[in-house]
């Protein structure tokens, strides 16, 4: 862990979206960072057939052999049977594999759609309240409200808890296979947001977050919150709620999205 607050070149600067009176599609966070949708499909409707056949030909040398034999059969010097009969084996192999891959890609598309259309409550600057929003529309810099037993929709900096000790518990078996609950805590500067009688709203958070690009090691993060006074606070893995983990034994949590979609840790 680093303690001097210095980050490497290429670090991301994130400011809460509620600080800017502008449509979402004009926000800096919207333009700079990926949205929260995920796509695991290999093909689109337009590219499915050509890409699939190209992939089969390049990765299965037996297909190249069958194609060579079929082409060779069109040459009068080498043809030994009906010209188009030589296309039957390669057509059968390519066709059956194409159908199989098509069904698999449809299954992936359905799974993506199921995840992307899950809902979460996101802070609406204009209405000054949390409103329901599909996961795919969440962007970096959004404040989210997650209730007990719900999945965390993105990689979130934990800022408020229903628990007065400013902590929560999450289950991370979807990420690392561990079934034991892990405790996460709010950064020290924001512990008061979780205390009884707190008048907290996301508009009270006006710090600027600096963080490095996503790290393949899911529990590694180098980030800090910087304030106008010049003071900064280090963000650790214990302050982060990762996408796919599930909130347990805590009525609700609130926090700001640092990484979304394909950029999640």
Topology, number of strands: 13
Please report the first level of CATH classification, the CATH class of the largest domain. Answer: Mainly Beta
Taken together, the total number of domains comes to 2
Main sheet characteristics:
6 strands, antiparallel
Query: Which geometry do the CA atoms define?
Result: elongated
CATH topology of the largest domain: Calcium-transporting ATPase, cytoplasmic transduction domain A
Oligomer: single chain
Helix segment tally = 5
Rg (CA only)? 25 Å
Strand content: 15-25%
Secondary structure class reads: alpha+beta
Mean pLDDT: 88
The largest sheet has its strands arranged as: 3-2-4-13-5-11
Keywords: Membrane, Transmembrane, Transmembrane helix
GO molecular function, one term: ATPase-coupled intramembrane lipid transporter activity
InterPro entries: ATPase_P-typ_TM_dom_sf, ATPase_P-typ_transduc_dom_A_sf, P-type_ATPase_N
Protein name: PhoLip_ATPase_N domain-containing protein
Describe the structure.
Residues 29-84 form the P-type ATPase N-terminal domain. InterPro entries: ATPase_P-typ_TM_dom_sf (IPR023298), ATPase_P-typ_transduc_dom_A_sf (IPR008250), P-type_ATPase_N (IPR032631). This is PhoLip_ATPase_N domain-containing protein. It is a single chain. The protein is of the alpha+beta class. The protein has 2 domains: 12-35 and 138-263, Calcium-transporting ATPase, cytoplasmic transduction domain A (Distorted Sandwich); 47-115. It has 5 helices and 13 strands. It has helices at 28-32, 48-59, 61-72, 87-116, 173-176, and strands at 12-14, 119-124, 129-134, 143-147, 155-161, 167-171, 182-185, 208-211, 223-226, 232-235, 240-241, 246-248, 252-259. The strands form 3 sheets. It has a 6-stranded antiparallel β-sheet, with no helix packed on it. Strands 1-8-9-10 form a 4-stranded antiparallel β-sheet, with no helix packed on it. A 3-stranded antiparallel β-sheet has the order 7-6-12, with no helix packed on it. Helix 3 (61-72) runs antiparallel to helix 4. The two termini are 17 Å apart.
